[in-house]
Amino acid sequence: MVPELSLKPNADARSTDGPNQGLAHSASFWSTASTEIGCSAASIREDRCDGAWAIQPVHFPWRDEEVREMFQKHDNQSIARLHRLGFLGKTSLAQGDLTPLSECWVFAPEDILNNEGASAARALSGQSLKKFACVPFEALIQQSLGLYSPEIKASFWEYEWLNAEICRYFIERRRYAKRRCAKPLANLKKRLEEMDADPLICTVVQNAYESVLEKKIKSPDLVSTLRFITEPLKELLQKPKPARVILQQLELLKRRFAAYCANPHTKWNAPFDTRTTFFDEFQLRGPLALAKALSQTDYSVCRKLESFSFTGGQDLKTIKDRWYGLCSSVKECLDGGVLGTSELFQFAQELCRLHNFLSMTAVNKGVELNAPSAGTMQPFHDLINLAHAFNDSTPGLYAVFEAEKQAKMGDFRLANKVISMCASYRAEILTSAEAWGQSFEQLEPVDAIVPSSSEEDSNRSHSNRSHSKIALHATSQCDVEGSNPQPRDDKMRYHPSAPDMNTQENEHQHWSPNPSLKLLRDIPFSCLSCLGG
Fold it and tell me: N or C: lower Cβ tally within 10 Å for the chain?
């Protein structure tokens, strides 16, 4: 039997009092005046699956209908959620390891009063970023399609509880006058903005600040807050592309989202970048034509360099951003399993043949960040050694990092050499690739942070799919020189022990006819009708 809504907390849960108006339909839930709640003797005894109830009602900013429904269902999921809300003790759960909402944040509201909110801002920002990173990317995809997933709802509950806890401290307990209540929250809000904290925690603090001013609790609009990522995903899903292609792009974006949350330099005020320029062009052009087009664009950028550019300036920044963007894109494609190391080796080999050592080193670094085996990396290392052998005599496009380092120390010899080698760089095969240059001018870095050797991803599978081969055989449509269609060149020119394009490279490599099904399994069937194709 479901009790009337005088729900009582178990002794395991920290009692929480709150004011009125949680969500839209919970006015009756807030009708009881707030008091300091003490647990009765009855609530201290070990509870069973139907819970042990104290005398006073507990106040939470959630719909009473939802709580009633959880009591009625009485299944494992409902019991787990009641436990997280603090209505049931740990002994009610078979799992026993779920955390009540009152323990989801290591935070005390009084911390906001100290150091003008600096310590509270650091604590809340760090915890919020970890929570946001744990939201499954598939749940964000469902949210972009208008499906309110359980994972998103559970995450929102944690933020709504934090909002109610902050408001309760400043409003319900009446510890400070109105003019003194809002100032600490204003300081906290300012600190979070200075830190460029994630949008969810900023929304909660902004909402709490407004609630204190109005003396009325309202729920934060977290759905709108997520639009910085759900709207770009929605636009991607609405594009007239086959489902296979979109699912491959989503595999890439899943890895990008993980890097997005792990990057301390992420700009949260910008929409989530859903562009997959490198992968799209690789599938359309193939590695040989892509290398030519990329080299043409690299040359047009590098030829603008002058000696003083190496001490700073937009031209050098553009080159470095392109390098990091290519490096990140290569790593994403390997992590997502949409390209294999054999295909990328052919791409790097063609860049080396074109003497575009700038982009070649970016490809090699991206492969290295994927942490492959030593045997897989050896052909790439041989390309680097070959590039070093060309340094003294061969015109080409060279990496700018060492030249920049020496120039900032006052030594411009290497910088002038890089400029000279670029000025004498002549590659007849690049002259007709201008039509593709615009696509690569948009190749921006996925991660603003410089890739380091410490970056590793647990997913080390590399796939060589049949549909990738089909796309690469379409290279004949992308002939740079405008002559007859050219067959795909699968020969490894520079290294006799280069990996075979048609064989398995190492024990970590897995070949699958359609690896996009990894993500497909996690998306409800009803979503796929929106993908087309």
Answer: N
* Cα separations in angstroms, 418 against 303, 360, 394, 430: 10, 16, 11, 19
Distance CA 127, CA 458 (A): 23
Contact 285, 405 (CB under 8 A): no
Among candidate residues 464, 445, 317, the one with its CA nearest the CA of residue 376:
464
Tell me the fold of 268-519: Son of Sevenless (SoS) protein; Chain S, domain 2 (1.10.840)
In contact, 499 and 345? CB cutoff 8 Å: yes
Distance, CA of 319 to CA of 445 (rounded, Å): 11
Record the pTM: 0.63
Token duo for residue 167: 């408001």
Which residue from 191, 195, 185 is spatially nearest to 268, judged by alpha carbons?
Answer: 195
Give the domain ranges of the chain.
28-103, 109-225, 268-519
Whole-angstrom Cα distance, residue 346 to residue 489? Answer: 9
Reply yes or no on whether the pLDDT at 483 is more than 70: no
Angstrom distance (rounded) from CA 183 to CA 409? 47
